[in-house]
Amino acid sequence: MEVPCVRVPVAEGEATRQRLADADLVDPDFDIVVEDDTLYIPVTDPDAVEAFEVTTHDAPERRTPTTPADRLGFEPTYERLGDIVIVDEDDPERARRIADAILESDVRAKTVVNRASKVKGETRVRDWDVLAGTETETVHREYGHEFALDITQVYFSPRLATERHRVVEQVEPGERAFDMFAGVGPYAVPMADAGAEVVAADINEAAIDYLRENARRNGVEDRITAHAGDVRELAADYEDWADRLVMNLPHSAGDFLDAAVRLAGDDCTIHYYDIQHEDDKYGPGERAIRDAAEPDYAVEIETRHTVRSYAPHEYNVCLDARLTRA
């Protein structure tokens, strides 16, 4: 559709658009058009434009994005994992309605799934009801890194991206970091990218296969050693080795504290994840760390951090503990 536009060189486009926007002259109903080295900015009142050349040009109407809420009449809860959309609904019919609305909206999704079980077993996987599509493998992007995974074979929570980034920002080049429950590598890969030498373990062989692939995807395969198996069986091979330990197994990390202390070097930071009642979110974890490490190590709790609400009156928390050999 031919509409009045300000015509400017592309190099001057953003400054011009900003000046027109400040004067409330940019027409929100049409898209800005780029042709060769020229930008065409649709305007609402060509007579009010000063200091710029006004012409007419063909500009497409701007389409308003369609959201699932537009289709449903309410705001559904869902999360994205790559191009898989995950809903969490007890009512199968409501889950199906949400899936249909997602597919009819502008949300990018090739598969929609509903959680069908809690995380279970030592490999920490869950069952899924596939509501739309068939592909359960995807590539998730997080803070500049890519993670390939299959949700039916491994555990991965996109909700923990901010927490993972918080930990990775503490990593110094040259550190030796051990991820005791590594999954597909959301801690291990960015720690290696930050310059650490990383050892990663997980009892889920499929997760370790994906971790090795993700190390290659992100160009850090030379700084990650991955082991499939129980980390307690690796402790003797890496005794006194680690400058940093990640213990992201919040329901049972305490069962592995003896192995963690064995892995710890003379000065080691442990990121210990726990789930506890709101009445004493940090005390049980702190006592468990001290019981395992003292008197061989002096223990300093550097950070008591609430990651998220887990259940009514229960919280997923992290203790950043500094262990210094006595």
TrEMBL record:
The keyword Zinc-finger does not apply. Keywords: Cytoplasm, Methyltransferase, S-adenosyl-L-methionine, Transferase, tRNA processing. The keyword ATP-binding does not apply. Residues 78-325 form the SAM-dependent methyltransferase TRM5/TYW2-type domain. InterPro entries: MeTrfase_TRM5/TYW2, SAM-dependent_MTases_sf, TRM5-TYW2-like_MTfase, TRM5/TYW2-like_N, Trm5a/b_N. GO terms for molecular function: tRNA methyltransferase activity. PANTHER family: TRNA (GUANINE(37)-N1)-METHYLTRANSFERASE, TRNA METHYLTRANSFERASE. This is Class I SAM-dependent methyltransferase family protein.
